[in-house]
Predict the structure.
Amino acid sequence: MKLNEFAWNTVTSIAQKDYRELRLILDEELTYPALAKDDNGFVLKIPLPKPVKDEFYQLHGLYFDKDEHSLLNLWRVFKASLYHAALHAAYSDYARYAPWAKGKEIKTATFAVSLIEDYRVTIKATRQWPGIIPDISFANYVAALRLNESVDNSVLGHATKILLALWHVIDREQLDNEVESLVAKVSSLVREHVRLEQMRPDRLLYEAFQNVYDSLMLKGSLRQIPFFPHTESHGIYELFDNKLTDRPGSQSILHSAFDALGTGFESLDDKTDLYESREFFETLASSSERANSIALHLKEMTGTTKLQGIEFPKGDYGMFLRVRANLSGSIRNIRDQLRLVKNVLDETTGHESGQVDTQLAMQVIAGGTKRNDVFTREEVNYKSESWAILIDASKSISPFAQTAREVAVALAEVAKDLFPAYSNWGLYSFNSSFQVLKDFDEHYTIDAKARIGGIVQRNATLLPDALAVGYKLLASTPTEIKVMVVASDGNPTGYLGIEQALVNTIKAISRSGILLMGVGIDSREIQNYFTVNCVVDSPYQMMKSFVKSYLQLSSMF
């Protein structure tokens, strides 16, 4: 089970949206999920389980042991986080609530809208996606067990009680009549809204928002916004940051959490979930081991450079698909034209058909042997070639970030089709560190594609240092022809004398027999360093310029 593939397929299936309207970023450095938007639609940012000291996994600030029971719980909470975000992508349009929120205290209004909208999309899911409800109910229960202290009667405590009560994960002893009555009314309004939704009865939601808002404002304005750890973050909130505690009454809270959404605890499929969790964490461990191996290998190569480390960009598969779709025509044209360059016609002998090799035929007749392999013909021979592709991901390239990403996607897709062996090409980005997009030892999988989509521009441009690593990578390949393609604005930065270091590095690489091509990203500065070069500012320009430059480079083969 590929993690990126599982997550992407899950989210797009529930949201009923593809890359044109949706992006998904998986990030083990995130603590809580986040919802964002770009010009096309939702950007879902989901935390990944993070290994800690070979003993635990961490997710949403909670540590899980690596025993089977703990990993099963972790798997369910991770799925719930994906499901919850996907439901927002499917059903939410926060802009429709702006008229109600206008002029109101921002954090209190945000809590009211978030609370009601989370509940609304989940109630819709009980009808349309009932299979995901058990994991959401379980995650709500886990969140309640992480409450690190009894809630007080402050406005923040009041908001927390409302949150817990709406999802039925609070001890009844902590409930007061005001909260119980409010939650019952809000739940009824939301469920009626969902029942009548085709008529867009937003007034029912506005009434629910207003009831929550008024109840809170009687106690003051919120300074923090309560949220469950598996749902979208609203800033700092520390009441749900405790470890899991099996407190008195927890079993009744577990059953109540399931009853709240119309299902029973027995709806959890232990057998299937156990199988999935084993497969999931085996894949996670394998991916982590492979990444560590690649990083260790590359660390040896960066030891003599000023590069500050090895990184793997956060995955953004939706962005990759979006860029690839826009470039499909250019990618096809570049690939087809480069195939013509890579193939050469050689005349070979010893065939049973073709043109007669007169000299060989005369020898056969004179010798009286019975042979019919006296013909010659032209055959296509493929040149043995490898590419190391380096993409500038420094801060100076930020104004042309989209062009840089387009170049990366185009070159990856072209290399994938040109080279029958995945080990004949590698794709990396660089700034102050060296980033693995697709290593020579990796297949071109959804993980590599997601990293390409997740390229972020920052820090200095250690171009000569990146070239030195690219040289070492290429030198270890067994092919006769080795090509390094460098896409950059051609402005090295990071330390004193870096321009001269770049000149010296290029000279040394050229003397080794490795062929260099510079691709200028909206900049002609690349021409100051690379003899074979092209400048691109659009996919169409890349098609023309890159092929022309590669033709020039191929004359040196």
